[in-house]
Amino acid sequence: MTDVPDVHDISETPRVPPSGELRFPPGFLWGTATAAYQIEGAVREDGRTPSIWDTFSHTPGRTAAGDTGDTATDHYHRWREDVALMKDLGYRAYRFSVAWPRVQPTGRGPAVQRGLDFYRALVDELLAAGIQPMATLYHWDLPQELEDAGGWPARDTAYRYAEYARLVGEALGDRVQLWATLNEPWCSAFLGYGSGVHAPGRTEPAAALRAAHHLNLAHGLGATALRSVLPGQGKITVSLNAGVVRPLTGSPADEDAQRRIDALATRVFSDPMLHGSYPESLLADTAGITDWSFVRDGDLATAKHPLDALGLNYYAPTVVSAADGTDGPRRDGHGRSDHSPWTGAEDVAFHQPPGELTAMDWSVDPTGLHELLMRFTREAPGLPLLITENGAAFEDRPGPGGRVHDPERIAYLHGHLTAVHRAMTDGADVRGYFLWSLLDNFEWSFGYAKRFGLIRVDYDTLARIPKTSAHWYSRLARTNVLPDPAAGANPDPDPVAGAGGGPVPAA
Ligand code: IFM
Question: Taking the model in full, what pTM does it have?
Answer without folding.
Answer: 0.94
